[in-house]
Amino acid sequence: MSTSTERPGDRTLQVVTIETTSLGDRSYLATDGTTAVVVDPQRDIDRVLDLVRRLGVRVTHVLETHVHNDYVTGGFELAARTGAHYVLPADSHVEFAHTGAGDGDVLDAGGFRVRALHTPGHTHHHTSYALVNSAATVEAVFTGGSMLYGSTGRTDLVSPEDTVDLTHQQFHSTRRLVAELPASAAVLPTHGFGSFCSATPTTGDASTIGEQAAVNPALTQDEQTYVETLLAGLDAFPAYYAHMGPANRRGPSPVDLSRPAPVAPEDVRRRIDRGEWVVDLRRRTAFAAGHLAGSYGFELSTGFVTYLGWLYHYGTPLTLVGEDEEQVARARRELVRIGIDHLAGAATGDIATLAGGTVADGALRSYRVSDFAGLARRTASAHALGPVRVLDARRSDERAAGAVRGSQHVPLHQLADRLDEVPEGEVWVYCGSGYRASIAAGVLDRHGREVVLVDDAFTNAGPAGLDVEAPSAGSAVHP
């Protein structure tokens, strides 16, 4: 996305958005056509460097709104590669030389300026940056994890002891932005497009300070209501977040997007037998139809890096299995964004060739795929076929809004540690769309369980004839 504003006597200011949909984040490049600043760049900086070359601009500053918890930054390397000033909020406590931006500091970027506004809440040091044109008008504000579209950044990523205080600070930071910036200023957040850094779901694809004043909970609710609502809505966040802050404070090593070493079919089998991670990137239905026993199925789509990072044990040798080298390259790019830099290798091609056989001769494992209509039919036949065991792999907040009656709740991120709670026999697994259920089905299959993947949107459960209800507070629902 690119936006620009021009006034008489001004150079045109252009803001180009760099989407990272797999993590629900955005990075930005702001330029007057000659110089540029980059805000919150992701690890794979080739995208930014290509944009800089295409625009023919010089990067003067690389800005971080905060030390990120959901991805490894590309800012450290980008600043080194471009010779730009690397700017982090004051009191970021990083281990490398940088420019600290204190509240009110103004950075001169040539034909425009950037003004730092301390907006704590998402973190203690969080800082937003107002984009100021040559006529001293604020065109936009880069809000990072502070003001989002119809929401704010979550406040529980620092520590449980700090969460309540940070939530109060988030309330006041959001109000400060409205009080000090013009209603016409564009709001440009880093998080909030599916990122777990958002406290609650966001709405819309663009907004202004004035629009947020009318809809953002931090601006339409009183302080105590806002704090209580935000705290009540916080749910689990990916386990890999624990690795991101330390990596960003050390200063990440240069990104490596090189091709992983090829792995022979027989060696893939040995790696599985040694307990290493072998991850199959193919479509979830293809994985269900036939896969290497003991491998994990993580379809390479929007949720891939979030859920692999959530379940993966950092440091465990990781081998990728893909249809072709392009698929493996895409997966590698996603993985470096969360600091999984060292791959043990990759195997590509026909899965039966890699396995040395088919499902029919036992070289591959498989399991059934159905939908909510199929589950409804199976439920109706319970008197003849026996009881139906149904597993809900969604988060607690999703389940609270409604679940298939009688289903057992084990969120995907807890499944590996709670396998003994899942009853023996055929288990039907569902989630919100089929994606997390496919990962859960693969985990169960890896342990020799009989599983049926419900590859369907949960919104179809009720229309399919299943009894959907919100579990009561007294029901036996796992957290």
What does the model show?
The protein is of the alpha/beta class. It folds into three domains: 2-250, 4-Layer Sandwich (Metallo-beta-lactamase, Chain A); 265-355, Oxidized Rhodanese, domain 1 (3-Layer(aba) Sandwich), CATH 3.40.250.10; 368-469, Oxidized Rhodanese, domain 1 (3-Layer(aba) Sandwich). 30% of the residues lie in helices and 21% in strands. It has 17 helices and 23 strands. It has helices spanning 46-55, 75-82, 163-180, 209-215, 217-220, 223-233, 241-250, 265-273, 284-289, 304-311, 325-336, 351-355, 372-380, 382-385, 396-400, 412-415, 435-446, and strands spanning 2-5, 13-20, 25-31, 35-39, 58-63, 85-89, 99-101, 106-108, 113-118, 127-132, 138-144, 186-189, 277-280, 296-297, 318-322, 345-348, 368-370, 389-392, 403-404, 408-409, 427-430, 451-454, 468-469. The strands form five sheets. It has a seven-stranded mixed β-sheet with strand order 1-2-3-4-5-6-7. A hairpin with a 4-residue loop joins strand 8 (106-108) and strand 9. Helix 3 packs across helix 6 (223-233).
